[in-house]
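Our platform keeps sequence and structure together, in a single record for each protein. Such a record has a labelled line for the sequence and another for the backbone structure tokens. Nothing more is needed to write down the fold, since each code stands for a local backbone conformation. For reference, a complete record is included directly beneath this paragraph:
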Amino acid sequence: MNNLSQFVTTPTKEHQQTAFRVLRYLKAAPGSGIFFHSSNFIQLKCFSDSDWATCPTTRKSITGFSVFLGNSLIAWKSKKQQTISRSSLEAEYRAMAATTCEIQWLMYLLQEFRVTSVQPAILYCDNQSAIQIANNPVFHERTKHIEIDCYIVCEKVAARLLKLLPVSSSMQVADILTKPLPHNTFILLHSKLGMKNIYS
């Protein structure tokens, strides 16, 4: 959908075929929806990912994240990054910064509702280098071009509002928002989002 929405004004035959594919998927799963658990452990768990230089026309990367409150999916996003990343590390770090801002906003929202959540929020990332830079308060010369994003993430990690944990690429839930996946992987990650079919 992210890709299709960029060609609404000038669609081609290829875009029409892709739109039909999306409609076939929706028609085959009319009862699918997000399941919200009635008893939940109140902690924010987030998955952040990026697909480096995916856009064939602009070479911009795609940011994807999914945020869970306990086991229930409450926020997600898939968006093309505003600038071109020179490395996969840079693309991953920009995705982490976007996810961190979403986490902070959700924490404020929970406070407004007087909901006490377990802190810190957990952010899963499949890029070890990005995690190491976030946990390292000394910025290296090679991270200067993403210094603002580094400050956003490092500040929250230092304040213990955010804990970064590694996740294997095969279990990275946000992958479903950033790239086309093989059928079996799609089904696995789809179920991890808490999607249920009320008719089955």
